[in-house]
Amino acid sequence: MKEKLEKIRSEALAKIEESLDMDKLNEIRVAYLGKKGELTEVLKGMRNVSPEDRPKVGQMVNDTRAAIEAKLEETKNAFAAKMREEQLKAEVIDVTLPAKKTKVGHSHPNSVALDEVERIFIGMGYEVVEGPEVEYDYYNFEALNIPANHPAKDEQDTFYINKDIVLRTQTSPVQVRTMEKQKPPIRVIAPGRVFRADEVDATHSPCFHQIEGLVIDKGITFSDLKGTLAEFAKELFGPETKVKFRPHHFPFTEPSAEVDVTCFKCGGKGCRMCKGSGWIEILGCGMVHPKVLRMSGIDPEEYSGFAFGVGLERIALLKYEIDDMRLMYENDDRFLKQF
Q: Binding site annotation covers 254?
């Protein structure tokens, strides 16, 4: 028995010395110390050993097991250290190299301008509402006092899906839908994308954005409109900004006006920005036409209101002194990150 244990011990230690990786070590462990290993078979033969020799043989088996386990653990630790050393060499980091720069996104000039406009009107008690971009001809034209064959339809250069459905040319349909669903008082702004068959150039695009506002209540007058837009202009372009109203015509408002603001670049003295006039046109407005109120289910004898509309791109172009509208849609990071 003693000779057999010494042979097992010497063979196991020799194989451990010759092993080259962790898989081979595991195979040796199983071969000698596993449930069907050679040392386990020796233990099973203890029943054939005389009672007086069993303690001595048992001690020899335990010593052999301890020697094999110690050698396995020592070799395992050596392999682990070597693998760690190789890993550190392979994954070495040069701390003198510059760090990788993380590119952070930036708000588009349109988004910056829209956030500013919404902040101003929400501060005045307005609600932001939205509507469909694919709209019925009724809401886009007829409900706004623009019937069939009206010349304003030609001026809009509309994209027709069929004779009854269009890509909206303004966000005014959202105002009509709001008046149909909500009883006065109404104070809303309707920002959104609109579509017109325009040629692309420095100031035009077939797809752009508008912000339209609507107020309906008892006793609303043109003075309320002027005061609202004067405050809006001061908040947007600076406290010294003044407004000027010029008579105009829109089918859905009466009376109607175009609104100019003093040039925020030169303060009204005249410069390249305002083409020497001291004034810059920014939006159109007027008192809601009684027919529009009546078609939306509101009694014009009891209620009155005003509406206005401004191009979001126009605000961004003016506020940030951008010369070409096409720059807004080219997604050039060099341009966008300036804002």
A: yes
Question: What does the DSSP assignment read for 192-256?
Answer: EEEE--PPPSSS--SEEEEEEEEEEETT--HHHHHHHHHHHHHHHH-TT--EEEEEEEETTEEEE
User: How far is 180 from 175, CA to CA, in rounded Å?
Assistant: 9
**pLDDT: is 253 or 80 the higher one?**
253
Cα separation, 255 vs 233, whole angstroms: 21
Instruction: Spell out the domain ranges in the chain.
Output: 2-90, 109-336
> Using N-to-C axis directions, what is the helix angle for 54-90 and 2-18, rounded to 10°?
0
CA–CA separation, 42 and 58 (whole Å): 10
Cα 172 from Cα 161, distance rounded (Å) = 19
109-336 is a CATH 3.30.930.10 domain: yes
Using an 8 Å Cβ cutoff, are 225 and 185 in contact?
A: no
List the one residue out of 170, 167, 187 whose CA is nearest residue 179: 187
Q: How far apart are CA 79 and CA 312, in angstroms?
A: 68
pLDDT in tens, 36-64: 777 667 666 666 666 666 677 677 777 77
Angle, CA of 238, 240 and 243, to the nearest 5°: 95
Q: Residue 2 has what pLDDT?
A: 67
pLDDT at 318: 85
- Enter the tokens of residue 45: 């033969």
Rg (CA), the chain: 42
